[in-house]
Amino acid sequence: MPDTVITTNMTNFLYAIIIAAVFCIFCTIGVQSKTALEALIGEYSVIGAALLLILVLKTVNINASEQLLSLSTLFTLGPFLLILFIIIYYIVIINIYFDKIVSNKISDYYFSFSNISTVLIMAQIFLLVSTIAKTTELPRKTFSILMLLGTINAIVVITLGIVLKFYTTDC
């Protein structure tokens, strides 16, 4: 059984990193320079890495209690995996269309969908973090809300990719 004090301290440290990265993301919203876009990629990478480490810590705690294949485990780990998938896909899209975004040869819809996705990711993360901080298992209502937000966010990020691929301008 892992030491709960160390696990709690590590999790709190990762939460602090996520909060700092979220603050930085809100500072770079709407900025189109190359360095700001690189910072945005880095910030999302930090959030993804912190969420992955929290997922590993939760998995270690679940393994210690020997309930790895229970339904509540899937309810707890599922939203982590969905948020990680969305963040990774968002980073890949920004990397693929990096030059178009920096040269401002994109539609105005990019900024709208990017802001919507950022708000949805932050809502998912804060709901997940606040719930996991209180309890080890995710309640079913919270799971449902997180999966709904994740589905909407996945649609928004896919739409963002479509906007970047097909709706370019010749400015």
Give structural notes.
- The chain has 171 residues and is mainly alpha-helical.
- The model has no long low-confidence stretch (mean pLDDT 83).
- Helix 5 runs antiparallel to helix 6.
- 81% of the residues lie in helices and 0% in strands.
- The protein has one domain (4-166).
Strand content: under 5%
Please identify the structural class as seen in this structure: mainly alpha
SS field, number of helical segments: 6
The proportion of residues forming helix, as a percent range, comes to over 70%
Poorly predicted runs of 5 or more residues: none
Please write the string of helix (H) and strand (E) elements: HHHHHH
**Count of all domains:** 1
How far apart the termini lie comes to 59 Å
Summarize the structure.
It contains 6 helices and no strands. It is mainly α and 171 residues long.
Write the layout of secondary structure elements.
Layout: H1 4-27, H2 34-64, H3 71-96, H4 98-102, H5 109-134, H6 140-166
Keywords for this entry:
single chain, 171 residues, mainly alpha
